[in-house]
What we know:
Layout: H1 5-10, H2 21-36, H3 41-55, H4 62-67, H5 79-105, E1 112-116, H6 125-130, E2 134-136, E3 155-159
Antiparallel strand pairs: 1-2, 1-3
Helix pairs in contact: 2-3, 2-5, 3-5
Amino acid sequence: xxxHYHDILQGFTVEELCVDDKAKQAIKACAELMLNTSxxxxxxxxxxxxxxxxxxxxxPSEAFVEVCEENxxxxxxxxxxxxxxxxxxxxxxxxxxxxxxxxxxxGCQAACFLLKxxxxxxxxxxxxxxxxRQIPIDQAxxxxxxxxxxxxxxxxxxxxxxPA
Length: 164
């Protein structure tokens, strides 16, 4: 069972960013450090500052930008802030996947998990379309576990069984 954040993060492709594999590993290492110490904006900003000192520039993929306008550096005050939010995004995705895998491993009776969005006026169209979708626990993956974009407020809820 992948119940350790290192294993989970190594499984993340991080295709949202157009950077080389070495940079992706550095980003995943920073997210792991946060998950094992403190997942907060101050820590994320400090690590993002260190990352940007070495990476110089970071560019999101076109597919990631299309999901939500918040997925671009220009939406933020600078690239360091953007990378900080990306680290928080990765941490939350790793936590969600870890929680699902934990439930599965320790005999949870749930057959699937439900995607739940904030259900208010600030929910983006893409997340609104996913609300209520049921996904079998065995199919939990990087692509179908929230958050789906930076600033995403979607969550998962375990479901005992599929509806009739």
